[in-house]
Amino acid sequence: MKKRMRIKYAVFTVLFIMILTALSLGLIIAADMYYHNKFLQHHGLNYRGYRGRVVGSKRGNEIRIIMLGGSSAFGYGVHYNEALPYRLEEELQNYCNSNGINKKVTVINLGYNNEGAYAFYFNLKDFLYLKYDYVIFYDGYNDLGIGNVTVYRHSNPVFRAFKYMPILPLIIEEKKMVLQSGGRLEDMYLGKKIVFTPSPKEKIQINILNSALKVYNTFDNFANRVSRVSDKEFDMGQIKKDKWAWYKYYMKKAIDFALGCDKKAVVITQPYISDEHREQQGSLKKTIFNTYKDNKNFLYLNLGEAISLKEGLLTFDGMHLNADGCKKMAAIIAQKIEGYVIGK
Length: 344
Known about the structure:
By secondary structure, the protein is of the alpha/beta class. The chain has helices spanning 2-38, 71-74, 84-98, 117-126, 157-162, 168-181, 185-189, 200-226, 245-260, 275-292, 323-341; strands at 62-69, 104-109, 134-138, 264-269, 298-302.
């Protein structure tokens, strides 16, 4: 009798813990979704890991395009519905509507700050479930140096494990930074020395936030063992012979992956930012022309001269296009690819 009672008590305890865990997890997800919706315009990625609203299942008449790149593709400094991918979707959809073409065009923004060619393969692979038809590569700036291995989404353990991009850790971290800096968050990001003593109440709040981040970081250690990004495949010795070897190797890897998955690829040269950028893109053009010039599923567009970054009306920092600049560039790209992507 006592043994049976112990078994029942053990089962009840396990079920109770499972229910509490499920409720806690549900509350965390609900809070995360709330903040995702609240900060959709400004704070980057949705819960699936890309910018803008989450797209549903692909329609029968839908043409689905993904755009890869760094901050210029992401839309640094502009709202998600002012960024280049969103504007390009508008332009291509207008083309369909104006020509009586019964197609739904969706352009998904997979860009992110500081990402370069190395990240493209991982992004293409991670988002295959979106069933995209076309891939637009729009980058170059972030590979003017050597060895950029930034893969932002893979730096998040939850995304690596579950393909869910949480926003709560960012909010918790920034809240902690606000408390620690006396509200001088920007100075803290810039690494400026801040002399500020939190009040006893603020110290308690900081400790609570640190505890929440500790749980998250524990999961990070586990996820690091489950999924790990490796950059050992490239022979760095090649750079001695060709300074752009790294960039071209990973661009080709991404293009080959896309074409191998029966996707169509479009490589677009961004507006030229420097002589070095011109040199880089010239080297890339030679490589990809020799490799893909006869492939009907590949298109190369040099738009380096399409917009001058010196035009103050189109860029706010000499690199990133503002809302008007994004709109103008989207119109230029659409005009170049509408026949290739949609047809007549």
